[in-house]
Design a protein that fits this description.
The complex is a heterodimer of chains A (314) and B (326).
Chain A: H1 2-6, H2 13-30, H3 35-61, H4 71-86, H5 93-118, H6 122-140, H7 150-157, E1 159-160, E2 163-164, H8 165-183, H9 185-195, H10 197-202, H11 207-232, H12 244-254, H13 267-285, H14 290-308
Antiparallel strand pairs in A: 1-2
Chain B: H1 14-42, H2 49-55, H3 59-74, H4 82-94, H5 96-99, H6 101-125, H7 129-147, H8 157-163, H9 172-190, H10 192-202, H11 204-209, H12 214-240, H13 251-261, H14 273-293, H15 301-325
Chain lengths: 314, 326
């Protein structure tokens, strides 16, 4: 009994509770109709958010001011790169995925170099690089109408017993990310740097290497996400990643990771991603207009953050 | 983003510091001059009363939004909603302010109130301003779409007349940006409460222990940001004559870039109103007129903003490092 209660003391449980509440609200409106379908539809969309959310989590955990604002542009470019390299050919899928991964990693490495060499705050570094990536994507992806290879598109939409394979893969990925965060030297280093960068450095932690790996990882995950999104939505586009600017940061914060750094939580990202996607599903089933949906989404996010954010010590 | 800065300019000896400071202060002006020289070289006819009027067309709203962003950055926060807020204000201006002025003005004043409440919320609950303002950006965008589902509306006549002013000798955008830079400079850099407001970003503990309310400073700065956002939206509609819910979306990134370009630091209350306006002018000029004259396709407009930002920051890092090496 006490064990069952203790789980409610974990910060991440509330994101799952939130997801459950909006799901129940949606199916009570439809009278139970489409309850399972809603989850099946929500899972892959949540998975896309989790993939970039995990990257963003590692970045945010590095400490105040660390955030990757280049993810939307990165995702957009990687989606175009993947589709162009694959060229609709099943044999080229692996190469296309590698290209998207390389494109994303390159963005992450460029971000880190800007931060390191120019000594500018990460927000500005990733912002400036996102300007440039966006232009490259607009110019490179102009009129790109390449469909993903059929096998790749089928894979992205494939389901095992009603569970999308993308979601299964992303759950495994999240477990690995959780292990990396809590058990590997890399993850422990990220947490230590977030708690106190100078103390971490004095303790002999390879601060710069860890920061480099973190930005490269965030970029790489953005790249993979771009390729998968293009497969799922059957085509690349410049604004395919736009919504991930807000959602990648929001799922990290709602999921119980501290914006002050040094405290991260992987399971909460899944809960928060499901919450955000099901929230949109709920508003859609209620039939609210596009404008009202935006207003409500914004207000609920601000409300949840306000409720979840305990007053911080100065 | 309330705690200590990760990137701190190196400590310098007295003379070296003042030299570095001078260079740093001049850097925004230098980059603007460079852009102007490039434009003059590529198209001498652009350097005229008419040319400036045309090229700096959108400088007024951009500069106002940049100043709004600067207030928030002064207290170590960031406003990622200012772009959609400008769009929302634009939609209100092109509809209610024209048709039902009393309602329109009330709505705009209350939206400034919302900004003040956000400042209070962020301070009291220790919330990350990035997430709160990202959430609010959805709210403003949604409200704008509810108000004006299709592009349309019409600017009030007095606003159109104001923005179309043609004063003798000096083009209106130059006068307007100069005036706003000076007003904010005097208010923030030359008054004693301005020093308190900047101190709230530089050393909150010290300001708190000196008996000033950090709550008030945060609310005041967010309210100021809202006020300048309103002015920016109205000025924008005065130029474009009609509104669209997405009209201001680009302003979020432009305004942050303008502040940083103008010599503002991300943490520590180190900002410069005059620099911010110069930064906004640089971006306004570099984004389209310069590229057009250089025959660079509009695809690369956004990249130009990013590249300018990186080049100026690189120059700044270089100055800091060379002075530190002395």
């Amino acid at each position: 009994m006490t064990q069952a209660l203790r789980i409610f003391a974990k910060p991440w449980i509330w994101s799952f509770v939130g997801a459950l509440v909006v799901w129940l609200a949606a199916i009570s409106f439809t009278g139970g109709y489409g309850a399972g379908g809603m989850i099946t539809a929500a899972l892959p969309l949540a998975a896309f958010t989790v993939i970039v959310g995990v990257g963003q989590m590692f970045v945010i955990t590095l400490g105040p001011g660390n955030v990757d604002l280049s993810l939307p542009a990165n995702i957009g470019l990687a989606s175009a790169v993947a589709m162009k390299v694959m060229g609709g050919d099943d044999a080229m899928v692996a190469l296309g995925l590698l290209a998207a991964l390389a494109s994303g990693t390159a963005v992450g490495v460029a971000n880190y170099l800007l931060i390191r060499v120019l000594r500018i705050p990460p927000i500005i570094a990733t912002l400036s690089s996102s300007f440039i990536i966006l232009s490259i994507d607009i110019s490179y992806g102009r009129g790109l109408q390449i469909k993903p290879p059929p096998a790749f598109a089928d894979f992205a939409n494939f389901q095992v017993l009603g569970v999308p394979v993308l979601a299964i893969g992303t759950v495994i990925f999240a477990v690995l990310a959780g292990i990396a965060l809590q058990r590997l030297i890399y993850g422990r280093s990220v947490l230590a740097i977030g708690q106190n960068m100078r103390a971490a450095w004095l303790a002999g932690i390879a601060v710069e290497r860890t920061r480099f790996l973190t930005y490269a990882l965030s970029g790489a995950l953005g790249g993979i996400d771009g390729a998968l999104l293009a497969a799922y939505f059957r085509g690349a586009s410049v604004d395919i990643g736009n919504e991930y600017l807000l959602s990648s940061i929001a799922v990290v914060v709602i999921g119980g990771t501290s914006v002050a750094g040094g405290k991260a939580n992987v399971p909460g990202i899944w809960g928060a991603a499901l919450f955000l996607v099901l929230l949109l599903t709920m508003l859609n089933t209620f039939g609210v207009s596009a404008g009202l949906r935006l207003v409500l989404t914004g207000l609920i996010i601000v409300g949840v953050i306000t409720a979840a954010g305990a007053p911080r010590a100065p | 983003m309330t705690s200590s800065s990760a990137v701190r300019p190196p400590r310098l000896s007295g003379r070296a510091r003042s030299y570095a400071q001078l260079l740093r202060t001049l850097l925004p002006a230098l980059s603007l001059t460079l852009i102007l020289v490039a434009i003059a070289y590529l198209n001498p006819r652009a350097i005229s009363y008419f040319g400036f009027n045309l090229m700096l067309n959108l400088a007024i709203p951009i500069a106002l939004a940049t100043l709004g962003q600067m207030f928030v950055i002064t207290i170590n926060e960031l406003d990622l909603s200012i772009g959609t807020f400008v769009g929302f204000v634009g939609c209100v201006t092109a509809t209610w302010v024209r048709e039902a002025p009393l309602l329109g003005v009330t709505v705009l004043l209350s939206s400034i109130g919302v900004y003040a409440v956000l400042g209070a919320l962020i301070h009291l609950r220790g919330l990350p301003s990035i997430v709160v303002t990202l959430g609010m950006s959805f709210v403003w965008q949604g409200l704008a779409i509810l108000l004006l589902p299709q592009p349309g509306g019409k600017a009030p006549d007095w606003l159109l007349a104001l923005m179309a002013l043609k004063p003798p000798l000096v083009p209106f955008p130059i006068i307007a940006t100069l005036v706003m830079a000076l007003v904010v400079h005097i208010g923030l850099m030359r008054t004693s409460y301005g020093a308190v407001l900047r101190g709230a970003g530089g050393n909150p503990q010290a300001i708190g222990r000196a008996g000033w309310s950090l709550f008030t400073t945060k609310v005041a700065m967010f309210a100021l940001a809202g006020t300048f956002g309103v002015l920016s939206g109205m000025a924008l509609i005065g130029i474009t004559t009609a509104a669209d819910a997405n009209i201001g979306n680009g302003y979020t990134l432009l305004s942050i870039a303008g502040v940083i370009l103008g010599g503002g630091e991300f943490v520590g209350g180190r900002v410069s109103p005059i620099g911010a306006v110069i930064g906004a002018l640089t971006l306004a000029l570099a984004a389209s007129p310069l590229l057009t004259f250089m025959h660079i396709p509009p695809d690369w407009q956004v990249a130009a903003n990013g590249a300018i930002l990186i080049v100026v920051l690189a120059a700044r890092a270089l100055i800091n490092r060379r002075e530190a090496a002395r």
